[in-house]
Amino acid sequence: MNYACVSNRPFVTRKNLSIKKNLSPEEKDRREFIRSHKFSVVVDPATKKAEVKITKR
Q1: pLDDT at 8
Q2: N or C: at which end does the chain have fewer Cβ atoms within 10 angstroms?
Q3: Average pLDDT in the 19-27 region?
């Protein structure tokens, strides 16, 4: 099980965290879509159905 604890101590690791992962073209397209659109979720309380509205920024 993973968990996080609040601490006043600085984050320390022996591993190099500066490795950058190359994204696939599909992941790049998905990231660009998410950044260029606004998402809102509306739930109808009577029917309990959710509707997602996506608008371009």
Answers
A1: 78
A2: N
A3: 86
Question: Do 18 and 9 form a contact (C-beta atoms < 8 A)?
Answer: no
Q: Choose between 17 and 10: higher pLDDT.
A: 10
Give the amino acid at 46: A
**Mean pLDDT value across residues 10-16:** 75
Find the farthest-apart pair of alpha carbons in the chain and give their distance in angstroms, rounded: 53
State how far the Cα of 30 lies from the Cα of 22, in Å rounded to an integer: 14
Write out the two tokens for 23.
């994204």
Report the pLDDT value the prediction gives residue 15, as an integer from 0 to 100. 76
Whole-angstrom CA distances from 51 to 30, 36, 38, 44, 48 are 20, 20, 14, 8, 10
Tokens of 2: 């993973």
